[in-house]
Amino acid sequence: LTAKQDRFCMKDTMEPAHLGSHVGQTASGIYTCACCNSTLFHSSKKIDTGSGYATFISPIEHGSVGYKHHEGSWLHHPLDTGIHCEYCGSHLGNVREDGPPPHGRRYMVNSACLKF
Fold this sequence. Notes:
By secondary structure, the chain is mostly beta strands.
């Protein structure tokens, strides 16, 4: 892993908003985990919410992303639940329950934690 990938994938932190390389990405394709290459998201589920992160309405398949509630953490927004690659455990970003229908979620993912 690069130093940047280690910082955001292994240390449960978020990149500064609007600086990630995948934020404005519009090409069609598959996003995989930067650590283990597991398939995580498809570009057809990517949305622009203005959050400054690569944002998706759902993972590519059920069970590819795991969840971890940030209990009492001052480092995270109170509405955020941490998400990680279910295959290798690397931190991906956060999910909020305020996304568009039908799922109602928005997965905000660190660009450093993804490969396209």
